[in-house]
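Hi R.,

As promised, here are both runs. First protein below:
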Amino acid sequence: MAEAIVAPEDAGCFYHPQSRAAVPCDLCGRFLCALCDVELHGQHICPACVETGRKKNLMRHLDDGRVLYGRLALMVAVLPLLFWPVTMVTGPASVFLAIYGWSKPRSLTGGGRASYVIAVLIGLAETAGWVFLLWIFFK
């Protein structure tokens, strides 16, 4: 929470003049309260500079999107079931994606790892089915 100004000589936040400034923005110099301070890799940045950097693609370290590998692996495992010969490739691919994405950052809105486990199980079942069919065919 932002701290209220108690003395007239205290600087106020650029965005919240009634709140005591904690730090200046390292990019533009505006005074920021604790509420407005965005700390990014050791720098204190104001919301306007963050938005400008995001729009101009200058903030390389800003994480504004993530690949949801669990959902991708599940989709790669399930969608090809509509055209089953493709599962020869997508079964192992879904297992690979689930294992590869297991340690990657997950969604910012939550969600567990159930889609990873389901994708691995379906992918292994598809792969085992193809191994069995090829074993029967070439036996």
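And here is the second one, sequence first, then its structure tokens:
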Amino acid sequence: MSVQAAAPADDPRPVMPREPEDGACCQSGCDPCVYDCYWEALNRYEQAVADWKIRHAERATVTQRRSED
């Protein structure tokens, strides 16, 4: 059974943030820069995906055990 098959509709996989478009940075040293915000969002996304994978691996294991019983 695939992990995705065990995924409930109320816990979708996190969506990757969009990278700023070319020219979004004004090169004036803003703090925070649009890229700083993007990188922070990307770090949060990567952690959210790791957490999501753990949750769904656990659900797949529980589902598999139940089907074997």
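A quick note on the second one: Helices lie at 34-68. Let me know what you think.

Best,
J.
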